[in-house]
């Protein structure tokens, strides 16, 4: 730590994560070189990029103004309702599965073997993107919302259990010790000490994950896992770009409403 005499003798410098300036510049140079090498190895053609700009402008012009027929409106509403229901069911199932996994993955409650099993379940759930899981579920159970529910529920387990287990690890253990001191059982410790401390966090995480699943439900449909995503994909395949733009606008609106409602609910809970 710098003293007054150190500052007086020389110019003070803000501490950094590097040992010295040479190391810092070597790290910066290595990062820049790696980025340039990555761009070169990928081989992105500049001409193709320029042509893509023009094609993108043409696509946007073809998507304006947004329009849809009464039949298309009905299909869009069905897809949106399906996405919302998928999100609710997937979030509910995911939370039900996540609760015991979170207790298993809390190192202040679970024995070491159980702890590693819980952490392993969380790691597996967090290792794959929703689209990858959705593709697997479509192959397993076929096209439709069931595949989407399973994919979103699977991802919910990793997200919810990880954050909830960390919350459990941060609880006040004094309450647990007090209940144990008067002869309380393990279940009574969980019910009257652990659970009251984590209920607000459970509610907040549930609302937040529902918001995430609502957004992701529009994506998994692209691979046939139900929801509005499949309707959007079909509109692009039919070159009905005005209908596509209408669907995109509705998706953006729903996501924004869900985000605002989620933020408001979490503020009220906290």
Automatic annotation (TrEMBL):
GO terms for molecular function: ABC-type phosphonate transporter activity. One of its GO terms (cellular component) is plasma membrane. Keywords: Cell membrane, Membrane, Transmembrane, Transmembrane helix, Transport. It is a multi-pass membrane protein. The keyword Cell membrane applies. It is found in: Cell membrane. This is Phosphonates ABC transporter permease protein. Belongs to the binding-protein-dependent transport system permease family. The chain crosses the membrane at residues 25-46, 84-110, 131-154, 219-237, 243-265. Residues 80-262 form the ABC transmembrane type-1 domain.
């Amino acid at each position: 730590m710098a003293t007054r005499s150190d500052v007086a003798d020389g110019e003070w410098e803000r501490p950094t994560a590097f040992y010295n300036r040479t190391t810092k510049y070597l790290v910066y140079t290595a990062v820049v070189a790696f980025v340039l090498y990555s761009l070169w190895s990928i081989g992105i053609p500049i001409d193709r990029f320029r042509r893509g700009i023009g094609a993108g402008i043409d696509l946007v012009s073809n998507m304006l103004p947004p329009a849809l027929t009464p039949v298309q409106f009905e299909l869009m509403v069905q897809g949106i309702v399906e996405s919302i229901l998928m999100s609710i069911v997937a979030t509910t199932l995911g939370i039900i599965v996540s609760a015991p996994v979170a207790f298993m993955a809390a190192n202040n409650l679970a024995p070491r073997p159980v702890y590693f099993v819980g952490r392993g379940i969380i790691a597996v759930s967090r290792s794959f993107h929703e689209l990858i899981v959705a593709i697997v579920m479509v192959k397993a159970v076929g096209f439709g919302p069931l595949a989407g529910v399973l994919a979103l529920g699977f991802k919910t387990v990793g997200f919810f259990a990880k954050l909830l287990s960390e919350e459990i690890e941060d609880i006040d253990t004094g309450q647990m010790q007090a209940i144990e001191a008067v002869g309380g059982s393990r279940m009574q410790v969980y019910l009257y000490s652990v659970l009251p401390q984590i209920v607000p966090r459970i509610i907040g995480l549930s609302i937040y994950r529902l918001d995430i699943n609502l957004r992701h439900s529009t994506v998994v449909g692209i691979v046939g896992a139900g929801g509005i995503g499949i309707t959007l994909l079909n509109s692009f395949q039919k070159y009905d770009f005005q209908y596509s733009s209408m669907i995109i606008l509705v998706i953006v609106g729903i996501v924004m409403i869900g985000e605002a409602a989620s933020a408001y609910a979490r503020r009220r809970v906290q």
